[in-house]
Amino acid sequence: MKLALITDLHANREAVQAVLDHAKAAGAQRYAFLGDYVGYGADPGWVIDTVREYVAAGAIAVNGNHDAGCVQDISPNMRPEARQVVEWTRAQLNPEQLAFLAERPMSHTEGDMLFVHANAFAPAEWEYIQGRIEAVRSLHATTCHYTFCGHMHEPKLFHLSGTGKAGDFVPTPGVPIPVPPHRQWLIVPGSAGQPRDGNPAACYAMFDLREQTLSFQRVPYDHELAAAKIRAAGLPERLADRLAHGQ
After folding, report:
1. Which of 20, 27, 39, 209 is deepest in the core (most CB within 10 A)?
2. 170 with 156: CB under 8 angstroms?
3. For 18, which DSSP code?
4. Parallel, antiparallel, or unpaired: how do β-strands 30-33 and 2-6 relate?
5. Which residues have CB under 8 Å from 207's CB, separation 6+?
6. What region, left, alpha or beta, does residue 26 occupy, with left being phi > 0 and alpha being psi -120 to 50 degrees?
């Protein structure tokens, strides 16, 4: 089975549609969405409805920090820009869409796989996996051999051997990587809706369970249209500008 791993969609309809089309053409048989369906982009309702359709067909979908922010009280410490986006997003969503966000679990375990937005050691605290230290802490928090998470908007792969030796590397798009289960693996697919590694192309990853291989993918999309929608919605200009630069 081929499992498409998509995270940090961030209300970017153009990017999400491009990723879903690419994954389907690549033979995806199931989908896992790792959170942050809203925030930053101008199409939160469309993205939520699309993910809902996939969940109804058997997809996995967990909670993200931006999703939680839309259905909980806004933190007084939230930056004005982020507060503006949350308030705008709430006003765009209907009760069914808000309920879908509120119902998302913090994590999902299936067989030898853990799906979570931020990390395995404290999912609800939204701490980032910025390097090996956090990755090893996350891998130590689960017995699963495969942990899939988002939150970090850059694609990365971490691994931990049975002797405790850790490693990490930035994957080359489109190149299958053997991920045998005698190691633990932590996979960060990168952001579909707002990449931040200097490449504006949308990110996702494909896990081939039968072959035990993982491939990271980059998918070009119409980021100029996505940016134009952000500007038309009256959202902060910086959110539109960054799409063209992948930052």
Report:
1. 39
2. yes
3. H
4. parallel
5. 2, 3, 5, 146, 148, 179, 187, 213, 214
6. alpha
Cβ contacts of residue 25 below 8 Å, gap of 6+? none
Measure CA of the first residue to CA of the last residue in the chain; give whole Å: 33
Question: What single-letter amino acid sits at 203?
Answer: C
This prediction's pTM = 0.96
Domain that holds residue 185: 2-245
- Residue 221 to residue 82: CA distance in whole angstroms: 25
Q: How far is CA 178 from the centre of its chain?
A: 22
CATH code of the domain covering residue 20? 3.60.21.10
d(CA 136, CA 158): 8
Tokens read off for 23? 């994954």
Helices (H), the chain: 13-25, 44-56, 65-71, 80-92, 95-102, 132-140, 223-232, 237-245
Number of compact structural domains in the chain: 1
The dihedral over CA atoms of 149, 161, 122, 74, expressed in degrees to the nearest 10, equals: -30
Cα 194 to Cα 11: distance, rounded to the nearest angstrom: 9
Q: Which residues contact 76 (CB under 8 A, 6 or more apart)?
A: none
Per-residue pLDDT of the chain (247 residues; tens, 9 = 90+): 999 999 999 999 999 999 999 999 999 999 999 999 999 999 999 999 999 999 999 999 999 999 999 998 776 666 777 778 989 999 999 999 999 999 999 999 999 999 999 999 999 999 999 999 999 999 999 999 999 999 999 999 999 988 788 888 899 999 999 999 999 999 999 999 999 999 999 999 999 999 999 999 999 999 999 999 999 999 999 999 999 998 8
Measured CA to CA, the distance from residue 66 to residue 239 in angstroms comes to: 15
